[in-house]
Amino acid sequence: MFAQSDVAQLDIDRVSDLIRSVAKTEILPWFRNLDAAAIREKTGPLDLVTLADEAAERALTPALADLLPGSRVIGEEAASNDPRVLDRIHGDEPVWIIDPVDGTLNFAQGRPLFAVIVALAQRGETLAGWIHDPIDGRMATAVKGGGAWLDGRRVRVADAVPLPEMVGALSTRFCGDAMAARLEERSRGLGERVCLSSAAQEYLRLLEGRAHYSLYHRLMPWDHAAGVLLHAEAGGHAALIDGTPYGPAALNGSLLLAPDPASWRDLHGRLFG
């Protein structure tokens, strides 16, 4: 039976190298080279999948499983085709969670704001996470309890600042019209909003100290499992807006991230109090 201590036996750099290799061979050749036949809608015009998404997931799935015998895989595209794939998050086996191209809309439109996200979870807990930007080569990694690392250097989230100086990504998609209107009104006293249409890129901004907070309402594990772990290991604080801790099995609710618990409470009070 796999135990959390076994994460230490994983070659973290080997996973990083695998992600880089797949991004180079299966994703970058398609960037700004997609025709209409290489892009299709899933649930609507803002929810796309491309041949690059599918090729990267096909390459990562068996390769990651081979790195950890007995593990299973949840890929975004596999789960889109068969929602039962998500049930693997509740099993006892370790699970690799893959978002092959986070920010597919950006990717399809030729904007260099996308990334590969991989997480390793077990029994509702994220144990390791990776975010890789194939354009500039940034690689963020974290193992639970081992700190957050970006391109080989340990990173910390931004220091706490007053609410009017807080820069962040505040999404009003997927939250309903009433909450969206309330958030638009209550966020006016905050600092600059920078929404990149890629959770991965927004998590990288948090790790680099260029943003103070993020708010999300669509909690698919491939979007957030790795990022929340990285943020926590960099000293940040995250929770669902009802105050409960986030876990990769959480699919409902809204997720708020801030530099520390006090900042989280202040921001939560401003937006939802």
Main attributes?
273 residues, D-Maltodextrin-Binding Protein, domain 2, seven-stranded mixed sheet, four-stranded mixed sheet
Secondary structure blueprint with pairings:
Layout: H1 12-27, E1 39-44, E2 47-50, H2 51-67, E3 72-75, H3 76-81, E4 95-102, H4 104-108, E5 115-122, E6 125-132, E7 139-143, E8 148-150, E9 153-154, E10 168-170, H5 177-186, H6 199-207, E11 213-216, H7 221-233, E12 237-240, E13 255-258, H8 261-272
Parallel strand pairs: 3-4, 10-11
Antiparallel strand pairs: 1-2, 4-5, 5-6, 6-7, 7-8, 8-9, 11-13, 12-13
Description:
With 273 residues, the protein is α+β, with helices and mostly antiparallel strands. It has two domains: 151 residues, Fructose-1,6-Bisphosphatase, Chain A, domain 1; 110 residues, D-Maltodextrin-Binding Protein, domain 2, CATH 3.40.190. Helices cover 32% and strands 23% of the residues. The protein has a seven-stranded mixed β-sheet, sandwiched between helices. It has a four-stranded mixed β-sheet with strand order 10-11-13-12, with helices on both faces. Strand 7 and strand 8 form a beta hairpin.
